[in-house]
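Q: Structure tokens for this one, please.
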Amino acid sequence: MPRFDEGAIGVVSGQILLYAIAAKIPAFSLLAETNEMNPDPKANAGILKVLGKILNFDIDLAYSHGKDRRLSA
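A: Here is the predicted structure, written as tokens:
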């Protein structure tokens, strides 16, 4: 899983992580690079795939792949 040492996390994702730090709550975030103007099922599927590896279970990504085909058409 690649780790990025630079970049920005904004809006709600950033606020949740800042709150967790302030409250001393262990937290992490899985984020994907996307085009902010369009939904990105491939990015969603990528995050779910990584989450499945972390939690050691399989996630059926057929629905996400189907959405990607419809949006790309």
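A few notes: The mean pLDDT is 81. Residues 41-55 form the longest helix (15 residues).
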